[in-house]
Design brief:
Layout lengths: L3 E4 L3 H13 L3 E7 L6 H5 L2 E6 L10 H11 L3 E3 L9 H9 L3 E2 L4 H8 L1 H10 L7 E2 L6 H11 L3 E5 L9 E3 L5 H16 L4 E5 L5 E9 L5 E13 L2 E7 L6 H17 L4 E9 L5 E7 L6 H8 L3 H9 L16 E8 L1 E2 L5 E2 L2 E2 L2 E3 L19 E5 L6 E2 L6 E9 L2 H13 L2 E3 L5 H9 L1 H4 L7 H4 L1 H4 L8 H17 L19 E8 L2 E8 L7 E5 L2 E11 L2 E6 L2 E10 L2 E6 L2 E7 L22 E6 L6 E2 L4 E7 L2 E6 L4 E6 L6 E2 L6 E5 L1
Parallel strand pairs: 1-2, 1-4, 2-3, 4-5
Antiparallel strand pairs: 6-9, 7-8, 7-9, 10-11, 10-13, 11-12, 12-15, 13-14, 15-22, 16-17, 18-21, 19-23, 20-22, 24-25, 24-31, 25-26, 26-27, 27-28, 28-29, 29-30, 30-31, 32-34, 32-37, 33-36, 34-35, 36-38
The structure holds adenosine-5'-diphosphate (2 copies) and magnesium ion.
Length: 670
């Protein structure tokens, strides 16, 4: 076994690999960019080496620097994690040339599966079922369009070198083909440096079911069952679970055999995932093989009791697989939710900022077992960030993976609901409330799964904001009263006259949020005595019990309410039984809000680069017309016209880098 490895990654996966290495007595070397000098993954390792500036191409993608660091630090092997260099065959070759073990499959296997097109040709030879499509070399737009016409719409365009759903475009009809093709090619070129595409029949209501395979260098290859990753947005996984609901033993064995055939066709060694797209009738087709550890590998660890990183290290060191196929069993059910810094209400746009406040349920991290050896933990959180850390525009905006286990699916779902309810983040937008609605919605709860689930339930998953409940307003008022009692100093919340000890005892507080203004009349009794609150015509008795740090306890009409209240950027963040509410106390003395409605839609939502301008100075556009495309955080974002109007000025050119909030063009509505 190795005595020292270098972990060529960051965030949760680097922390997770470090934890297993530590348990196995293997020393670890972290690498980091300037954005990550103080990051959790650097602290999780024994030693660290700086690579370079924050952008990945100057740091985590610099294979030469990483290999030099491994040699300088005396590591024998490199674990690439996922993303970055994990599926880079040239890097695997360079490791071998430097005398280092690449903890992953042979470069030949990565190359064979690296192109979705070439992989499909190989699978055809191995008799693995394929989705109807065109995956050949010819790339002329006219020819590809003919192929799409032949396959029949809807078709899906994919970047052959793709991953993470990037570049993928659904084409509903021939007329849309050319625009979708150039957009797919542009994103493919920008993300992967390769604009080859393939065309596939777009299946309706399919499920994404993937098989975890593992092979060693002694000719053994087994599968560790399946994961259902059907719940996706923008072709990216949001929830993953194992086993797949409704999977029969027979189907599992058939998919397992197909996955093993796929792996063996390329001489696979190590951990890999064969992804299938499955129809509701159970028929399944090969999509691609991911030649690395998968983001969602923990659900497999939870149901098998195996540490897949330990398996990777053993196999890379030349040991045989720790278990044989018949020794593996499925124990219970596990679900993973990807907790992202993103804004589901704004098309899942990534959100950047600091984790000003971060609190979670009691959980284990990076462990396969819970407190009871042999028993999975009910809640596991794999995170690479701590309170105070930032989510930067340079890397994937994932905050953490929340993984739960239960004796059955219903038990796992209960643990997921509980863990999400206790997940508190202030400082940036997250998908936590969205995940809560997703896991409690009837479709997911009843395992009525397909890749269109989120899109189909959009309205319930992304409801119009509702007014806060009286309980929540009472918590907000209680926290203000507490703050007032604790600090009688100059305070933006206390300079209105109602708070003065000798001022009026009655006062109307107006809280505002996306749902509007919410009035609370407070008859203030002084100190912690019984105050009277009037909300929506109803009177309530409010008594403050305690406030420790950000935790508030109060009684409303005798009922005990417990909540956490965090003040940040003029907002009160209330976490209570009803979720996370963001309330602003309207200061009657302040000037009216100065924002111009709609204007924010003409500014850059995040730092990025202008990749296309679809309009011209002086042009007249209709409402919703795409005007400009930016690329940021590895995705394209379209800036559309907020109304019909005229473009007065374009303020940037293609290729320009823009900062967050930059005004992109001058627009005059009709
Ligand atoms: P999965 O393992 O579920 O197939 P994806 O294919 O979405 O996941 O990609 C795996 C992960 O790798 C992503 O969630 C992202 O964190 C990371 N990743 C993908 N592409 C890049 C990239 N170019 N640079 C950095 N990280 C990346
Ligand atoms: P990536 O490399 O980005 O992971 P995949 O080929 O694995 O690309 O596809 C990602 C997702 O896109 C799948 O999980 C599925 O939801 C959807 N998808 C892929 N191919 C098809 C198809 N032919 N029909 C319908 N949906 C598909
Ligand atoms: Mg995939």
């Amino acid at each position: 076994m190795f005595s020292k490895i270098l972990i060529a990654n960051r965030g949760e996966i680097a922390c997770r690999v470090a934890a297993t290495a530590r348990r196995m007595g293997i020393a670890t070397v972290a690498v980091y960019s300037d954005a990550d000098a103080l990051a959790a993954h650097v602290q999780a390792c024994d030693e660290g080496v700086r690579l370079g500036p924050a952008p990945a191409r100057d740091s985590y993608l610099r294979g030469d620097l990483i290999i030099a660091a491994a040699l300088a630090m005396g590591a024998q092997a490199i674990h690439p994690g996922y993303g970055f260099l994990s599926e880079n065959a040239d890097f695997a070759d360079a490791c071998a040339a430097a005398g280092l073990v690449f903890i992953g499959p042979p470069a030949t296997a990565i190359r064979a599966m690296g192109s979705k097109s070439a992989a499909k040709s190989l699978m055809q030879g191995a008799a693995v079922p394929l989705v109807p499509g065109y995956h050949g070399q010819r790339q002329e737009p006219g020819f590809l369009r003919e192929q799409a016409d032949r396959i029949g719409y809807p078709v899906l365009l994919k970047a052959s070198a793709g991953g993470g759903g990037k570049g993928m475009r659904i084409v509903e009809q021939g007329a849309d083909f050319d625009a979708a093709l150039s957009s797919c090619q542009r994103e493919a070129q920008a993300s992967f440096g390769d604009d080859q595409v393939l065309v596939e029949k777009y299946l309706t209501r399919p499920r994404h079911i993937e098989i975890q395979v593992f092979a060693d260098s002694h000719g053994h290859c087994i599968y560790l069952f399946e994961r259902d990753c059907s719940v996706q947005r923008r072709h990216q996984k949001v929830l993953e679970e194992a086993p797949a609901p409704g999977m029969s033993g027979e189907r599992r064995a058939a998919m397992g055999a197909a996955a093993i055939a796929a792996a063996q066709a390329v001489g696979y060694v190590g951990a890999g995932t064969v992804e299938f797209i499955a129809n509701q009738d159970g028929s399944f087709y090969f999509m691609e093989m991911n030649t690395r550890l998968q983001v969602e590998h923990p659900v497999t660890e939870m149901i098998t009791g195996q540490d897949l990183v330990e398996w990777q290290l053993r196999v890379a060191a030349g040991e045989p697989l720790p278990l044989q196929q018949h020794q593996l069993q499925i124990n219970g059910h596990a679900i993973e939710a990807r907790v992202y810094a993103e804004n589901p209400e704004k098309g899942f746009l990534p959100s950047i900022g600091s984790l000003v406040h971060l609190r979670t349920a009691h959980a284990v991290s990076f462990q396969v077992h819970g407190a009871d050896p042999g028993q999975p933990a009910a809640i596991r959180i794999d995170a690479g960030v701590r309170e105070g850390d930032a989510i930067s525009p340079f890397y994937d905006p994932m905050i953490a993976k929340l993984i739960v286990w239960g004796a059955d699916r219903a038990g796992a779902l209960r643990n997921m609901a509980r863990a999400l309810a206790q997940y508190q983040v202030v400082g940036l937008a997250t998908n936590i409330a969205f995940l809560q609605r997703l896991v409690s919605g009837h479709a997911f709860a009843n395992a009525d799964l397909d890749t269109g689930l989120i899109e189909r339930h959009r309205e319930t998953l992304l409801p119009a904001p509702g007014a806060p409940l009286p309980d929540t307003l009472a918590v907000a008022v209680a926290s203000l009263l507490q703050q007032q009692a604790q600090a009688r100093t100059a305070d933006p919340w206390s300079h209105t006259d109602g708070w003065r000890a000798h001022g009026r005892l009655h006062r109307t507080l107006v809280f505002t949020d996306e749902a509007g203004n919410h009035e609370v009349e407070l008859a203030y009794a002084g100190g912690d005595r019984h105050h009277t609150l009037r909300v929506g015509g109803q009177s309530h008795v409010l008594q403050l019990d305690s406030m420790r740090g950000s935790d508030v306890e109060l009684r409303l009409d005798g009922r005990v309410l417990q909540a956490t209240v965090v003040r940040h950027d003029e907002l009160l963040h209330v976490f209570d039984a009803h979720g996370h509410s963001r309330l602003r106390l309207l200061d009657p003395l302040a000037h009216a809000a100065d924002g111009e409605a709609g204007d924010d839609r003409l500014t850059a939502p995040m730092p990025g680069k202008i990749v296309a301008i679809l309009t011209a100075k002086g042009a007249h556009v209709e409402r919703g017309a795409p005007m400009l495309i930016m690329e940021a955080m590895k995705m394209e974002h379209t800036i559309a016209a907020p109304a019909a109007g005229v473009i007065d000025e374009l303020l940037y050119a293609v290729g320009d880098q823009v900062r967050e909030g930059a005004r992109l063009l001058d627009f005059r509505p009709d």
